[in-house]
Specification:
By secondary structure, this protein is α+β, with helices and mostly antiparallel strands. It has four domains: 3-88, DNA Primase, Chain A, CATH 3.90.580.10; 100-225, DNA primase, catalytic core, N-terminal domain (DNA primase DNAg catalytic core, N-terminal domain, Alpha-Beta Complex), CATH 3.90.980; 251-422, Dna Topoisomerase Vi A Subunit, Chain: A, domain 2; 434-607, no CATH class. It has 30 helices and 17 strands. The protein has a six-stranded mixed β-sheet, with helices on both faces. A five-stranded antiparallel β-sheet has the order 1-2-3-4-5, sandwiched between helices. The chain has a four-stranded antiparallel β-sheet with strand order 6-9-10-11, covered by helices on one side.
């Protein structure tokens, strides 16, 4: 058994995914809202038997535990392999040769880690960093915080980190790819004369750096950051998340600020469920990352930011992916760090006094415009209605429409009319089976549905033999499904699989000893999957994960339904056959064949006259 299979055996997929999202039992499988796109009806299915998952919604993607972790963490296969091997306690020996992308990232992590240690050493243990150390102490940053957040100092020199890393065996191009040096006529350090903030992802990898100047009136940017690299993406990073994860889970809330000092100062007050965004507004990637730890986010915003489009987009993104957003309203001209340095208790008080984001938008608009004047009413409505239009919860939307109407002293109906003009009617959501069958013919839908049911039957061998006698292979058109059904028949015969339900065993008059004397093999989907060629596995997996058991809960219901499905499929086959024969009716023997096919079709239509299938559209 190779290392990949060992990992799969040691880590149960259902348990693993349950650590990240909430799963609910659905027949033999589990279901959930897909974590990889926004939806209201669960389309994400996990099979404990096959140890696979599949999204039947917008993603239409699926796979094993490795594929899930790759999508969840946005990493490549070798990174996922490394994480899962460590979790399973398996030492990787076979997979020494990784992808070039993985090797590149690992090298950048190594380079960044060494650079972080150098910057930190220069800050706390070298005379060149004394000025920066004094500056941090003046700002109230403790020695413990300097160590915890791996703060450092980059001397005001053209070459400090470059020669250090070259001595460690790294080339100039590798160091440049990490974003630490710049090439003009020669290579020189990117960060010079700045306090260094080590940027880590939530897995504690050093992905990059942020450098802050010590001189407030110095020409140039106050902050400079690592450029976009294979490991650092500004729109993904949340500063401090590596340290705040535990506190976020415990508080079931995360505070979002805009600066590194805000996070560090807040930690020192005991409020550790806090992170900083690297930009002007919360991005979708950041919001989805935070949702892994909590569904409640609190933005620490200056009042002036309420009218900014970037802030609104961030709030809209958070709302759409199911996050509840509140706001800490900071005094004008203050941020969390400056507030804490002036009065620690005040920061703790306004954190407790946070308000829902839409109340914040209301208060901000009414503070900036004159609501008693017609023009002011118009400006307030013009600013708030587009925000209200994006509220995904209709009850919440109605609540704030009513409040806005009361505060503006106008009719609620007039606001609803104005809102209706802004809202585009959403597309009607379809059921899981219809979504997954988009673009397929009715013949293909019926064949996949038939296959999904037969895989869940206890009397699988009996029913497959029954349909085989009724020309199943001739009737079906999908080459892939026909191949899998043929392999299934062969598997059932070769493995001597026998059909019996629990009730049949209990009521059987056959003695226990005689039942034990003969070999009875029960059908297991995992065993059949091993017997299938790899190219047919996706057909098996996607079909097996179709959630039919919520509508067909009993065995008799499944048996009755599959017979109806096959009849319906054969009717379509016969109609197509009759249509083809009609063009050749004058040829010898065709007339009799046409008559037989027509009679069979009439017979099937008579049987189905008063019946209908459960799931099919």
């Amino acid at each position: 058994m190779d290392e990949i299979e060992q990992i799969k055996q040691k880590i149960d997929l259902v348990d693993f995914i349950s650590q990240h999202i909430s799963l609910k039992r659905a027949g033999r499988n589990f279901k959930a809202l897909c974590p990889f796109h926004q939806e209201k009806t669960p389309s994400f299915i996990v099979s404990p038997e096959r140890q696979i998952w599949h999204c039947f919604g917008a993603c239409n993607d699926g796979g094993d535990i490795f594929k899930f972790l790759m999508k969840w963490e946005n990493i490549d296969f070798y990174s996922a392999l490394k994480i899962l091997a460590q979790k399973a306690g398996i030492k990787l020996e076979k997979f020494r040769v990784q992808s070039s992308e993985f090797r590149e990232k690992e090298k950048i992590y190594e380079i960044n880690h060494l650079a972080s240690e150098l910057y930190h050493y220069l800050l706390i243990s070298h005379r060149v960093g004394q000025k920066a150390l004094d500056y941090l102490k003046q700002r109230g940053i403790s020695q413990a915080s300097i160590k915890k957040f791996a703060l450092g100092y980059a001397p005001d020199s053209w070459q400090t980190v470059l020669p250090f890393l070259k001595k460690k065996g790294y080339g100039e191009e590798e160091i440049e790819k990490a974003g630490l040096i710049i090439h003009a006529t020669r290579y020189y350090d990117r960060f010079r004369g700045r306090i260094i903030f080590t940027l880590k992802d939530h897995r504690e990898n050093v992905v990059g750096f942020s450098g802050r100047t010590l001189e407030p009136d110095l020409k140039g940017a106050k902050y400079i950051n690592t450029p976009e690299t294979p490991t650092y993406h500004k729109s993904d990073l949340l500063y401090g998340l590596d340290l705040a994860k535990k506190a976020i889970r415990q508080a079931n809330e995360v505070i979002i600020t805009e600066g590194e000092f805000d996070v560090i100062s807040s930690f020192q007050t005991g409020i550790e469920n806090i992170v900083a965004i690297k930009g002007s507004a919360l991005t979708e990637n950041q919001a989805r990352l935070l949702k892994r730890f909590t569904e409640n986010i609190t933005l620490a915003l200056d009042a002036d930011l309420a009218g900014e489009e970037a802030t609104r987009r961030g709030v809209e993104t958070a709302d759409q992916i199911g996050l509840f957003v509140k706001v800490i309203q900071l005094p004008k001209g203050e941020d969390a760090d400056s507030l804490i340095r002036k009065k620690i208790n005040h920061w703790q008080k306004i954190v407790k006094a946070s308000m829902p984001i839409y109340d914040f938008f209301l208060n901000s608009a009414f503070n900036r415009f004159q609501a008693e004047k017609p023009q002011g009413k118009r400006e307030i409505a013009r600013e708030l209605l587009p925000i209200w239009a994006k509220i995904s919860d209709p009850i919440l939307q109605a609540h704030y429409l009513k409040i806005l109407a009361q505060k503006l002293k106008i009719s609620e109906e007039s606001l609803i009319i104005a809102l209706d003009k802004l809202i585009k009617k959403p597309e009607t959501k379809t059921e899981e089976l219809i979504i997954s069958n988009k673009g397929k013919s009715r013949e293909e839908i019926l064949e996949e549905y038939f296959f999904a049911i037969i895989l869940k039957l206890k009397a699988i061998k009996k029913f497959l033999a029954l349909f085989w006698e009724k020309d199943l292979i001739t009737v079906f058109q999908s080459p892939a499904i026909k191949k899998v059904l043929t392999k299934l028949k062969e598997f059932l015969e070769e493995k001597r699989v026998e059909d019996y339900s629990s009730s049949e065993v209990e009521t059987s008059t056959e003695s226990r000893s005689s039942r034990q004397a003969r070999t009875v093999t029960k059908f297991k989907i995992a065993d059949f999957a091993k017997a299938l060629p790899k190219e047919l596995l996706p057909v098996l997996d996607q079909t097996y994960l179709k959630n039919i058991e919520e509508s067909l809960k009993s065995e008799p219901a499944k048996e009755k339904e599959i017979i109806k499905v096959f009849r319906e499929r054969k009717k379509l086959f016969l109609r197509r056959k009759l249509k083809n024969l009609a063009t050749k009716i004058k040829e010898k023997g065709v007339k009799e064949e046409f008559r037989k096919a027509s009679a069979e079709l009439r017979s099937l239509e008579q049987i189905d006259k008063n019946t209908r299938m459960t799931l099919l559209p």
